[in-house]
Fold these 3 entries.
Entry 1:
Amino acid sequence: MKKQYDYLIIGSGLYGSVFAHEAKKAGKKCLVIDKRDHIGGNVYCENIEGINVHKYGAHIFHTNDKAIWDYVNQFVEFNNFTNSPMSLSKGKMYNLPFNMNTFYQLWGTKTPQEAKAKIEEQVAAYGVKDPKNLEEQALSLVGKDIYDYFIKEYTEKQWGRKATELPAFIIKRLPVRFTFDNNYFNDTYQGIPIGGYNKLIDKLLDGIEVVTNTNYFSDRAKFDELADKIVYSGKIDEYFDYKLGVLEYRSLQFENEVLDTDNFQGNAVVNYNDASYPFTRIIEHKHFEFGKQSKTVITKEYPCEWNPSNEAFYPINDAKNQALFEEYKKLSLEEKNVIFGGRLSEYRYYDMHQIIAIALKRSKTELNND
Ligand code: UDP
């Protein structure tokens, strides 16, 4: 017998919202549920003093894919914010990502040739050809100074593990440039939705039934009866009741402060690279939208271990956890009426544009085959 909804979508983050939007467009009836008291997952912003505060960590939209850029722009206009984080290391400020400005500030090198020679000299002195962990990867890519000033202490704080025990791929995200270019991302398109991310989510879910404060696991049998198919964007191990074991994450604690000044740090993101600071960075949210408010809101990010009572942010993709995930993935393929997708379901660190791309691809396959 046909059930009340075509799709029950669990989680109203970007994956669930894009899927729901596409399903509705194809004439399907969807119900979106979310256990939090708001929609939008981790892109949700809270308005404090007229400033959009990125409640679950800074989100900066960037992509090289024109189709994805056009897709989001049909819902909301984006400003021209460019992420150019600063770093405070050993008492001095430096530009990030690693570029000619950073090299000048660090060594006084004025040309790409001088900077390259400095890095090559340090890499050669280190001499490892086949890096096996994050420390070896960094030292063989950028040498000792950059590793000591910007990578080692930040990374060990962020992950709560020695850099020698972390996989190398974590820092492949960090670009190295021999131009005076402080743009963190290499992508063609970048910006923040004008008016905040909530607008984007509101538009995606416009006309779709959404219920917040509703946890699928509180009454699975009831929810399973509601729809022909389920789109699940929660934690994959939780879906299977952790029966094979618990997947590990790194979590963050955010400490917000409203300050009676219009400009605290002059930049949206300042990384605190030294181990002596217990937080990794301070976000000053108004700068994402060039805010002119008289006050400001800053957030200190404290990395911590994940436990079931805090939020799961960064998957720990080491060999042990990855192997466990693969076992869960096998189980998920046997669930014929459930589509698993998103960061928590795929146990993978995704950027926003990647989540949108997979949600569009999967919804297309699903809706065309239906
Ligand atoms: N990282 C670092 N120093 C920095 C910034 C980042 O060593 O100043 C490393 C760190 O290991 C981190 C990874 O690069 O986990 C990715 O950092 P990014 O800020 O790009 O990622 P986010 O945490 O914002 O997703």
Entry 2:
Amino acid sequence: GQILGIEGTAWNLSAALFNRDLVSLVSRPYHPVQGGIHPREAAQHHASAMNELIGTILTDPEKVEGIAFSQGPGLGPCLRTVATAARSLALALDVPLVGVNHCVAHVEIGCFATGCKDPIVLYASGANTQVIGYLNGRYRIFGETLDVGIGNALDKFARAKNFPHPGGPHIEAQAREGTYVDLPYTVKGMDLAFSGLVSAAKDHKAPLPDVCYSLQETAFAMCVEVTERALSLTGKNEVLLVGGVGANCRLQEMLRVMCEDRGAAFFVPEQKYLGDNGAMIAYTGKLMLESGVSCPVESSRINPSFRSDEVEVTWKKDPPA
Ligand code: ATP
Ligand code: FE2
């Protein structure tokens, strides 16, 4: 059956219909007037765009057999706006409701889009930087950022240099002309930290393209190191890159080289499935509903700090031991 999914944890209010494949995907992104994302402004944007968005996607309401929404992690005011809309839709259409973990959804749509089976996932987005892999019924987090997400780190540097938001693509463009200067590299065990790197980059006196290039090289090398260690720890032989920062060609190249060296396969989904999108929520919601999971309206509270390893992965069969 057809599942309607709504995503809106941060900047992108997006809805999709998923059947066996993607039926339709509509997005109404919020663009901050100035600076970064303001949670209440983003939520107001989502609230005012919601009716038109749902009207556009919901051409055949009688075909919809379930409503999925992003339950967390994300910005509280944004999550509440999306959850409220999802609850009213489920009640109005009299279909089950399911709350989806946003990180798990990035991973699932990445697997769907690329055909990879059991990857180590580098989830590199604005607010999140995690290295994830499936083990014994859960998506485990092998390593993650101890401070800010890599995308937010790049955006913070970009703001200090007066690049438009989001800054990631502008840093990537500048970096093409750059050469290497030394910046602090921080990997602690399996975890990463970006704020010292950003401060040092902001204060660096080298020409801007050199600093952009070196900021990317350092931040991405940190991510690749932890991804490689997770591969070797688990013995898995696939790497999947997801999250908005995954659009970066240099990050893709560095992961591809690491994978070639190790004889692992590298996967990255097409752009529309990389950053936040409604399709990932609809698709994961469908997997969950078909495995018997749903979420009664009474227990559909949002969870701004929802972690991927809190989700019982009911839709995946473990390989026989
Ligand atoms: P999440 O809630 O999962 O943390 P998010 O709300 O931050 O996600 P995404 O769409 O996953 O949203 O990622 C947005 C981030 O991706 C921004 O920080 C942006 O700068 C970054 N980004 C986009 N394109 C590029 C690029 N080419 N290079 C580097 N960073 C990029
Ligand atoms: Fe995301």
Entry 3:
Amino acid sequence: MSEQAQTARAHWSGRWAFFLVTVGSAVGLGNIWKFPYMTGSNGGSAFVLVYLCCILGIGVPLLMAESMLGRRGQGSPVGSMRVLADEAGATRLWQVIGYIGIVGAFLILSFYSVVAGWVLDYTWQAAEGFKALPKEAFAEAFGALLASPGRLIFWHTVFMAMSALVVLGGVTGGIERANKIMMPALFGILVFLVGYGAVAADLPAAWRFLFHFDPSAINRSVLFAAMGHAFFTLSLGMGAIITYGSYLERDVSIPRTGLAIAGADTLVALLAGLAIFSIVFAQGLEPAAGPGLILQTLPLAFSQMPGGHAVGLLFFVLVVFAAWTSAISLLEPGVSLLNERFDMGRKQAVVVLCSGVWLLGIAVALSFNDWSGFTLFGLGLFDFLDTLTTKIMMPLAGLLIALFAGWTMKRAHVFDEIRMGSRVFVLWYNVVRYLSPVAIVIIFLNVVGVIG
Ligand code: ILE
């Protein structure tokens, strides 16, 4: 790392800023698009219960570990790991944690941006107002979007440009500023939508669906789906939290902020679930509709319910904000690496990185139509990238992070950085040393088909 890059390392303006940007990273399509449909397809409350346990038992401890690595390393995910490996007298091969994260973030963003593009297209339609049509017409409309390379590539391009624009503004002037505007707005819109659900839709039905716990519905597939989703939703193993942690001042408490971040992310997912299922049940729609849940069922509901035009538009704006603040956090790790390794200025780094993601995203967009015959390991490009990153790369990075923080770093250094009461520290430390790695290995073996 050049000395100039090192001394010029930016910092968030305070703990509130770190909280907001990290919540901005965590709260994304994962909360509003993926969580509701996964809950809907995995038996409702059973999934919610396991998911909450995973967040608390694996997600929060690893979120703290990642923030700690970034703050102590003071570099990109790769640079931070090099510094920390040297400090621990360990092999520099640990830098692989940084590389997996950055490559993973690059690959995730290429399809994340295409999905965010669907949302932009629907935001546009919502602004015009969804026409009241029969149920099948909404499924057909979603199919027509997927079949149109032009529309998919156009909106993917718009979304990448929006994300690039924020990251170009820098750590405080771009990322922090955007989050300070969008996150409170997102929260406000969400609370409004839940209120709307209570007044105009069926909130009690949504509440029962999410919280009427029935432990007998928990099975192995629910368990694994919930664990994988805990990683995705907290942005773990993608270099994002290490990078954001590297801009964190030393006086901010990592455990306290980490808990607050995971709490806020979970709250948003649950509120989004309440808002969405209130509408789904009030309209007599199917909760297990799969990935098309918010895109196929909600527009139908918005086209029929009172105030649906305005509510529909607010809903899609909320999803755009969520996706946007997450995409930024997937770009920043790569930008910080290009800056550190190749002395590239922010502008050049953003252009190089975004061009690469954009090109791969075009291939993803085409995989839904013109190139749908092209498969890798039997999967279309979209599914292949999703599986590779969320089911293999992220858990692998998470496992290595737990092993590094729990077994390789000197305990005194970890303690110095985490700084919490010694009893709580011992609990956290043991979770990172034993529980998290074992749990991740179990998911992993399930995914590669050894068990499950
Ligand atoms: N955590 C976010 C989400 O839940 C992103 C995941 C960054 C790729 O959508």
